[in-house]
């Protein structure tokens, strides 16, 4: 239960006694005990729920530690939020197209309302409300995917996660549309920061490394020039064929892992339902490549 001090003016307005405080029942138990920071209460419009956030300072010795020494690599994309490959052979794909379409629709509506404003005006209550709704909806999904993914990786014994440093890629190689998606919609840097916080809770190390060529390189034979990407599929003359983002994360993993990388199993796919990430029943074409194999990779 939360007890919140209330100013005298509000007490008089809402009929609270002089020594009375606002008491709120909460659902859920805090994960950590320690020195409590400033409590922040926000309203989540997408789920019609009030949420409380409070940082807690705890000794390093009280944080979780990895269950094993496995490795994972992430491909953060425009159409799929995260494609992840784990050295155990597990793969995860968090789909983002539906989320982006809702973001785009809200952006279009904001632009329409702005075009109808009187000269000299640039915003309105309706426009500001749409901006807040758009940001909260995106951040809700972004925070949820970070926690859902890290919890799955922790259960797999992952100790190190590699994520691409996209600074140069975003500035020079991606299309304008992809840049807009990653910068404005996914807020790449904010997502990586959130991911780092959750990894820290579980004692997992998050490292940024260059992922140049991973979206074009075949994970089986290393071919780059001859591979062809069409929408979500990457094909290679050697016969390998797979989901482009999952293939990129696998190639990235094999490049960075110091030990053995197991053959990739059929990936788990997740869709956002405005509240949580749930398993998708839709089959993913060409997700299992023609040439699965165990590869031992050194730095």
From TrEMBL:
Name of a matching Pfam family: OrfB_IS605
GO biological process terms held by the UniProt record: DNA recombination; transposition
This protein's UniProt keywords: DNA recombination, DNA-binding, Transposition
Record keyword DNA-binding present: yes
Chain ranges of the Cas12f1-like TNB domain: 188-249
Domain spans labelled Probable transposase IS891/IS1136/IS1341: 54-169
Highest taxon of source: Archaea
UniProt-listed InterPro entries: Cas12f1-like_TNB, RNA-guided_DNA_endo/Transpos, Transposase
GO molecular function: DNA binding
Family: In the C-terminal section; belongs to the transposase 35 family. In the N-terminal section; belongs to the transposase 2 family.
Protein name as annotated: Putative transposase
């Amino acid at each position: 239960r939360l007890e919140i001090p209330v100013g005298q003016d509000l007490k008089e307005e809402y009929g609270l006694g002089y020594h009375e405080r606002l008491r709120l029942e909460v659902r859920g138990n805090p994960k950590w005990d320690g020195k409590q920071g400033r409590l922040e209460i926000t309203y989540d419009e997408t789920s019609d729920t009030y949420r409380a956030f409070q940082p807690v300072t705890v000794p390093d010795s009280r944080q979780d530690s990895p269950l094993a020494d496995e490795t994972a690599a992430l491909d953060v994309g425009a159409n799929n939020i995260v494609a992840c490959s784990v050295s155990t052979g597990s793969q995860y794909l968090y789909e983002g197209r539906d989320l982006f379409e809702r973001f785009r629709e809200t952006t279009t509506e904001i632009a329409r309302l702005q075009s109808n404003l009187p000269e000299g005006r640039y915003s309105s209550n309706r426009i500001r409300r749409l901006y807040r709704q758009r940001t909260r909806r995106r951040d809700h999904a972004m925070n949820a995917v970070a926690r859902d993914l890290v919890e799955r990786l922790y259960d797999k014994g992952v100790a190190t996660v590699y994520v691409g440093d996209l600074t140069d890629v975003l500035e020079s190689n991606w299309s304008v549309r992809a840049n807009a998606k990653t910068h404005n919609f996914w807020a790449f840097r904010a997502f990586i920061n959130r991911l780092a916080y959750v990894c820290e809770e579980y004692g997992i190390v998050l490292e940024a490394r260059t992922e140049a060529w991973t979206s074009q390189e075949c994970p089986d034979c290393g071919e780059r020039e001859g591979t062809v990407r069409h929408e979500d599929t990457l094909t290679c003359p050697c016969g390998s064929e797979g989901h482009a983002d999952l293939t990129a994360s696998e190639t990235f993993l094999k490049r960075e892992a110091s030990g053995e990388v197991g053959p990739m199993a059929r990936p788990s796919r997740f869709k956002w339902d405005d509240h949580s990430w749930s398993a998708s029943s839709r089959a993913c074409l060409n997700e299992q490549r023609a040439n699965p194999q165990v590869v031992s990779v050194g730095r």
